Amino acid sequence: DVKVTQSSRYLVKRTGEKVFLECVQDMDHENMFWYRQDPGLGLRLIYFSYDVKMKEKGDIPEGYSVSREKKERFSLILESASTNQTSMYLCASGSSGTRNSPLHFGNGTRLTVT
Amino acid sequence: AQSVTQLGSHVSVSEGALVLLRCNYSSSVPPYLFWYVQYPNQGLQLLLKYTTGATLVKGINGFEAEFKKSETSFHLTKPSAHMSDAAEYFCAAVGAGGGNKLTFGTGTQLKVEL
Predict the structure, then answer these.
(1) Partner B, chain A 19-38, Cβ-Cβ below 8 Å
(2) Long-range contacts of range A1-7, CB-CB < 8 Å, 24 or more positions apart?
(3) Mean pLDDT over residues A36-41, rounded?
(4) pLDDT tens-digit series, residues B83-113
């Protein structure tokens, strides 16, 4: 079974702090994604990566950056956390083999910025 | 750009009743379509996926979805709801272009009542 592990389930940070959200997958997937989930808005894509050291902006990249130094790990970085970044963050991975390969999701990190 | 619309942010059914969750996609090219389910405090789990070919797709837990090109729809159904089906359901699509990043609908919260 594919496992996508997000290092924290809950995080509380202060405004202005630098925040790292870590995600690790164990299936040798090429593709990794960061989404944010907000009530009534569904999931929105922040950043994604199709290879090590590669990254592309999603639909809402402002205020975020990412790092992919190793294939299995994809980190989301909030350079200076703000209250409007309080949200649920979901990491996903998927095979690059075919376009209908499903994504596999971690259990999410609920971030609160105060 | 690909977009996915889910009609009804909240749906309530009685246990044993038919479940119908609606999803429409926008595109002149039929995309790859998915339904995911999210139970409380968990990540997203794949219910089923559509690929070109059969229009009726069967998934896990008794769910199925019918792809209708003429209506650009991919509605999710289950003949008889169970209390354990209470969750949030997301329709998603991979659009034109490369890769398998997903665009999600805004989600439908399913409530099952006795």
Answers:
(1) 31, 33, 35
(2) A2/A26, A2/A27, A2/A29, A2/A93, A2/A104, A3/A27, A3/A104, A4/A91, A4/A92, A4/A93, A4/A104, A4/A105, A4/A106, A4/B43, A5/A106, A6/A89, A6/A90, A6/A91, A6/A106, A6/A107, A6/A108, A6/A109, A7/A109
(3) 93
(4) 999 999 999 998 666 678 899 999 999 999 9
Whether the CB of B103 is below 8 Å from some CB of chain A: the reply is yes
Note whether B103 and B2 are within 8 A (CB).
yes
Q: How many residues does chain A have?
A: 114
pLDDT tens column, A67-90: 999 999 999 999 999 999 999 999
Contact B110, B87 (CB under 8 A): yes
How far apart (Å, rounded) are the C-alpha atoms in residues A57 and B87? Answer: 30
Closest-CA residue of chain A to B33: A100
User: Per-residue pLDDT for B27 more than 90?
Assistant: no
pLDDT-above-90 percentage for chain A: 88
Q: What is the pLDDT of residue A97?
A: 76
Query: Cβ of A102 and B34 within 8 Å?
Result: yes
Count the helix, strand and coil residues of chain A and give each as a percent rounded to the nearest 5.
5, 50, 45
Beta strands B19-26 and B3-7 are: antiparallel
